[in-house]
Design brief:
alpha/beta, 10 helices, 6 strands, 7% strand
């Protein structure tokens, strides 16, 4: 009968924005230039210890109860680069955010910085769950390599990885073919590829299904290219669950969870934008899934990931 809140942080820019000289600072909004704050967080750290304050901040957050950190976010930070993170319609019409992710631009796909690799190693060491949402393929692969190295040195231990609120890249590609619209294909990199799905499954982690049609299918009926398409959020979520499960090794729904992203400005569909509507999703799932499978997806898998991956210090 109690409501439990578990603290997670989306975006490792929360650890600081003062590392140099390798980082180029990109304004988060046109006309606003966010400069690093000099001499505040870095106080007391000399040459040769330029990463220490970031790692100290990470450990301090862990001590305060933070269980998970998303490495990337809507803009490149000092730890990781990022893919598209705002759906096309609000990006252009509400946010007026003009950064466009290019999957073949080497400068946008370097992955983790040297600092980023140290942050990942420290998270594996202290037992803070690594969220790969918003990361580029390059960053994801580097995390998988560091994760596998850590596991090889600590047999019998677990460090689950996660995609906290996303979908399936393959499903995006399916809808590109269905609709014939490919101009927004650079948004598909937000979703998990089969390589990602298998890596998450091996680690014991979960992929949380987002409640937003755009990130599940790449279809938004407000855009003229998709005029006439009718999409229901509940159906998109169920389709994504089965699509991801088919790409796993075990095919037992053990690495799928719910990752609503109900944060106040996402474009949630009209039949799935309130927590009260989750029961409607559950009812529709009963037509194709057992009660045990539904229980895993709604809470069991996520609780298992927390138990395995969120360690006391």
């Amino acid at each position: 009968g109690k409501i439990v809140f578990v603290h997670a942080i989306e975006g490792s820019h929360a650890l600081g924005r003062n590392e140099k000289p390798e980082v180029i600072f990109i304004p988060r909004k046109p006309g606003k230039h966010h400069q690093p704050v000099e001499g505040v967080m870095g106080r007391g750290y000399g040459e040769g210890k330029r990463f220490d304050r970031y790692l100290d901040n990470l450990v301090a957050l862990k001590h305060r109860g933070v269980c998970m950190l998303t490495l990337a976010y809507l803009f490149p930070n000092e730890i990781s680069d990022c893919v598209e993170g705002i759906a096309e319609y609000p990006k252009v019409n509400s946010f007026k955010y003009d950064r466009v992710y290019d999957p073949v631009n080497e400068e946008m796909n370097k992955g983790l910085s040297p600092l980023g690799k140290e942050v990942v190693k420290k998270m594996l060491e202290i037992g803070m769950i690594i969220d790969l949402m918003h990361s580029t393929d390059a960053a994801r692969r580097q995390v998988y390599e560091l994760h596998d190295e850590w596991i090889a040195k600590h047999p019998g231990e677990y460090r689950p990885l996660t995609f906290s609120h996303g979908g399936s890249r393959a499903l995006h590609e399916k809808y590109h073919q269905k609709t014939g619209v490919t101009k927004y294909s650079h948004h598909k990199y937000y979703g998990a590829s089969r390589e990602d799905i298998l890596a998450i499954e091996r680690s014991g982690g979960v992929i949380g299904i987002i409640m937003e049609n755009w990130w599940l299918t790449g279809v938004d009926t407000r855009l003229p290219e998709f005029e006439g398409w009718e999409m229901t959020g509940i159906d998109c979520v169920i389709e994504t669950i089965f699509d991801i499960n088919e790409q796993t090794e075990k095919k037992d729904f053990s690495c799928i969870s719910i990752g609503t992203d109900f944060d106040g400005f996402t474009d949630t569909p009209p039949d799935l934008f309130l927590y009260e509507q989750m029961g409607n999703l559950q009812e529709k799932m009963r037509a194709r899934l057992t009660e045990e499978q539904i229980e895993r997806i709604f809470n069991g898998n996520a609780l298992r990931m927390l138990e395995l991956g969120w360690k006391t210090m």
